[in-house]
C-alpha cells in the first residue's frame, strides 16, 4: 500500500511569507536560478517605507510582510522543505516552496501605482 503524502499546513504568517518569497522568486530583479536544480535564490529582500513595501510589481502592507523578519517563520519553512536551511546567509526557495499554493496569491497584494 502506498504511503499517504503528508499535507503541509502553514499558519497565516508562514503563508504570507511564503507567497512573498514566491513573488520575489518570479521577479528577475530579485532572484536568480540555482544551478542544477529547480530552486530559486532570492537575491534582494524589499524594505518597507511607511506602511507598505514593494515586492516585485506589488505593494504589500508591512504588517503582512512581518514574517520576513521572524526567525520562527523561517525555521518552520525550512522544516517543511519550502526553503533551504541556510536562510540566514542566502535565501533559497525550493522547488516544493515554489509549487506550494498558499491560497493567498491574489488576496493581500495589489499592483503598485508608483
UniProtKB/TrEMBL annotation:
Designated name of the protein: DUF927 domain-containing protein
